[in-house]
Amino acid sequence: MTTPTAPLIAVIEDEEHLAQGLIFNLEAEGYRTHHEADGNAALAWLLDCAPYVVPIPGTRSIRRLKENALAVAVRLPEAQFERLYGILREQPVAGARVAAAWMATIDA
């Protein structure tokens, strides 16, 4: 069960069955979720966060890679940007990006 103060996780996934599986498991662990099905909209928003965010979208095909690259040309309406930034303002990003032991190997 989630609470209003639980950490919020944005699930960016255009395949509904995968998104629902992630959402189910995250909420079962106590997280709140926000689902964004439009991958290009999510990438456009992340690109707008630059230089603070560098999205590295996963892909399994050249077709998807080309679709992802088109996100640089997407211009979101101001209302959609405000909605996405509102989510970020609601739950500021915090915490270590990786476990300390792993980070030690990266910085070595």
Q: How large is the share of residues in beta strands?
A: 5-15%
Largest sheet: 2 strands, parallel
* Integer tally of domains: 1
Radius of gyration: 15 Å
Structure description:
The mean pLDDT is 75. The protein has helices spanning 16-28, 39-48, 62-69, 78-90, 100-107, and strands at 8-12, 32-36. The protein has one domain. The protein is globular, with a radius of gyration of 15 Å. It has a two-stranded parallel ribbon with strand order 1-2. It is built from five helices and two strands.
Which terms summarize this structure?
single chain, 108 residues, mainly alpha, two-stranded parallel ribbon, 9% strand, globular
Put the structure in a nutshell.
The chain is mainly alpha-helical and 108 residues long. The protein is 48% helix and 9% strand. It has a two-stranded parallel ribbon with strand order 1-2.
Note the topology.
Blueprint: E1 8-12, H1 16-28, E2 32-36, H2 39-48, H3 62-69, H4 78-90, H5 100-107
Parallel strand pairs: 1-2
